[in-house]
Amino acid sequence: MSQQATCKFLCTDVDPQHPGKPMPAEVSLQTQYDENAPEDTHFTRFTPAGYMQMTIDNPALEGFFVSGQFYRIVLEPWA
């Protein structure tokens, strides 16, 4: 059985690296705690803080990351 971790992240910024061009873009995501959201209470109990930053340059992902949108990220071993 493969182990995995599921995380909830909020996109806090999408910053295009070249003026007038959407790609490449630097995308910033972080955990966001909401005490009224049951999934946040469970996740935060084990992982209270997290931050992810990546540069994307894939035309298929243009417009996928939106500041203010939540994303579910599943981490599992690469096999």
Helical content, roughly? 10-25%
Give the rounded overall mean pLDDT: 86
Instruction: Please count the beta strands (DSSP E, at least 2 residues each).
Output: 4
Number of helices: 1
Proportion in β-strands: over 45%
Helix- and strand-based class?
mainly beta
Distance between the termini: 12 Å
Give the low-pLDDT segments. Answer: none
Q: In what order do the strands lie side by side in the largest sheet?
A: 3-2-1-4
Bulk shape: globular
Main sheet?
A: 4 strands, antiparallel
Radius of gyration: 14 Å
Sketch the topology as an H/E string, one letter per element: EEHEE
Give descriptors for this structure:
79 residues, 1 helix, globular
Report on this structure:
The protein has 79 residues and is mostly beta strands. A 4-stranded antiparallel β-sheet has the order 3-2-1-4. The two termini are 12 Å apart. A hairpin with a 2-residue loop joins strand 1 and strand 2. The protein contains 1 helix and 4 strands, in the order E-E-H-E-E.
